[in-house]
């Protein structure tokens, strides 16, 4: 995690993959996360597992903390894994 954060600061256009545990219990919950990530500039792709309650995000020009704060805007409990 530390290296990924440093790399994203030193090489901001480099694509990085960030993983989060997100409290999602239904398709509406995952839909809220999908809507917010779809509108976020720099997010190249993402994978949401409702079953595992995880979100994996590939982003360029965004730090892990920026993606974390973006997902938190969905109102779902979020933690970095």
TrEMBL record:
| Annotated ranges, domain HMA | 15-79
Which terms are listed as keywords in the entry?
Chaperone, Copper, Copper transport, Ion transport, Metal-binding, Transport
The record's listing under Gene3D superfamilies reads: 3.30.70.100
Question: Its Gene Ontology molecular function terms?
Answer: copper chaperone activity; metal ion binding
Question: A GO BP term, please?
Answer: copper ion transport
The UniProt entry's sequence similarity note says: Belongs to the ATX1 family.
Q: What is this protein called?
A: HMA domain-containing protein
Lineage, top ranks: Eukaryota, Fungi, Fungi incertae sedis, Chytridiomycota, Chytridiomycota incertae sedis
